[in-house]
Write a structure and sequence with these properties.
CATH topology of the largest domain: TIM Barrel
CATH architecture of the largest domain: Alpha-Beta Barrel
Radius of gyration: 21 Å
Number of strands: 15
Shape: globular
Strand content: 15-25%
Number of domains: 2
Distance between the termini: 32 Å
CATH superfamily of the largest domain: Aldolase class I
Length: 409
């Protein structure tokens, strides 16, 4: 969730959605994202809408945050009903941040209970929280599991101390396997998030991180290339020459190594940056984003999407709470996607996942590009014959270029 909000149309104070939002909603999953904007320390690479206690000052209380989010959930249920969007139970719930587990587990449980009371949960619903390895205890994880959480995603990032130092991560790598074991004991599924391409990280460093993650035995592993965002502390350090810049060739080599090691360990890729042990271990919440389902995003700066209508909340927790206390929607702006934009996003997102994109959904020129993409080793020829566009390993490295060619009309 980038800290800079998009430019869109003004959102109405009552939050009501245009008629388009209700169209076909019964055939789409409904999900909830809850943004917890609090962090103990701001990482040097992070561009998300997060705040440390020092940055927030005395105007925002973390103790009151669960109640404030609950007020938005109450508003959400009213807005959807008044906008004619049919009621649906929640398929997935995802607490992200920030560090959600900086809040007491009881507060996270309160928010989940509020959401379940408003919409209900589908049988077997996936409920995830992100966490830092040093922000959980055996007791807090047990409490979350008892409240209905099913999954925890730990921000491991690296197993190498000097890499973590560049990223401004504060946890001890030795804490990761311990936290994974506690989560397992609580009955939670586990995902580990890794970052590759940190300035100063060698290929051997990255290999060590992969092996350490695999040794923990998680159900799911995400591996993301480091992106240097303008305005971050790491960007400033690179600009001053204090650390080297990132390198595309280095990223490619590390991605290929990740796929090789993870595949050998029994993990299968299902999205460009994500691998899971089995289909049941894939992150269903993220798949809902990639497949264009509906989700309400609660919290400051959170983004929502229902039926091609997208909106985003005001950024600062104080402004967010102020809107809700006044009985107004916290939405800062919104946009209604036209058919061309929805098609572009559909092609871009479907191409990134293992299910791929139906060739029938391409325009005439896009279909003619398929043969060239197969010849270039970017698209699986066998799958293309069966009517699906599925990226090869090389194609995943060049996914944006593949999408550009497929979108030619």
């Amino acid at each position: 969730m980038p800290s800079v909000l998009p430019i869109g149309d003004p959102a109405p104070a009552d939050g009501l959605l245009p008629p388009q939002a209700a169209g076909g909603a019964a055939g789409r999953r409904f999900c909830l994202y809850v943004h917890i904007p609090f962090c103990a320390v701001r990482c040097g690479y992070c561009d998300f809408n997060t705040y440390t206690a020092r940055e927030l000052g005395s105007g925002v209380s973390q103790d009151q945050y669960a109640g404030t989010v609950g007020a938005e959930l109450d508003l959400a249920a009213q807005v959807l009903q008044r906008s004619g969007v049919p009621a649906r139970r929640l398929s997935t719930v995802f607490f992200g941040g920030g560090t959600p587990t900086l809040l007491p587990a009881e507060d996270l449980a309160r928010i989940l209970t509020r959401a379940a009371g408003l919409w209900g949960l589908e049988p077997g619903a996936e409920v995830t929280t992100e966490a830092n390895p040093d922000s959980v205890t055996p007791e807090s994880l047990q409490l979350l599991a008892a409240a209905g959480f099913t999954r925890v995603s730990f921000g491991m990032q690296s197993a190498v101390p000097h890499v973590l130092k560049v990223l401004d991560r504060t946890h001890n790598p030795a804490r990761v396997p311990e936290a994974v074991r506690w989560a397992r004991d609580a009955g939670l599924k586990v995902s580990l998030d890794l970052i590759y391409g940190t300035p100063g990280e060698s290929l051997q460093d990255w290999e060590a991180s992969l092996e350490a993650a695999i040794a923990c035995g998680p159900d799911h592993i995400s591996a993301y290339a480091l992106i240097i965002e303008e305005g971050t502390r790491l960007a400033a350090r690179i600009r001053r020459g204090q650390v080297p810049n990132i390198d595309d060739d280095d990223h490619a080599a590390k991605y290929q190594l990740a796929d090789e090691r993870l595949t050998a360990a029994g993990y299968g890729w299902y999205e460009v940056s994500n691998w899971a042990r089995t289909e049941a271990d894939r992150c269903r919440h993220n798949l809902a984003y990639w497949r264009g389902d509906d989700w309400w995003g609660a919290g400051p700066g959170a983004h929502s999407h229902v039926g091609g209508v997208r909106w985003w909340n005001v950024k600062h927790p104080l402004a967010y709470a102020g809107r809700l206390n006044a009985g107004e929607s916290p939405a800062a702006g919104r946009e209604t996607l036209d058919e061309a934009t929805r098609r572009l996003e559909h092609v871009m997102l479907q191409t990134r996942i293992i299910d791929g994109l139906a060739t029938a959904e391409l325009g005439p020129k896009g279909r003619r590009e398929v043969a060239g993409l197969i010849a270039d080793g970017l698209v699986d020829g066998g799958q293309a014959v069966r009517g699906r566009i599925r990226l090869t390993l090389q194609g995943r490295l060049l996914a944006d270029a593949v999408v550009r060619r497929l979108l030619e009309d």
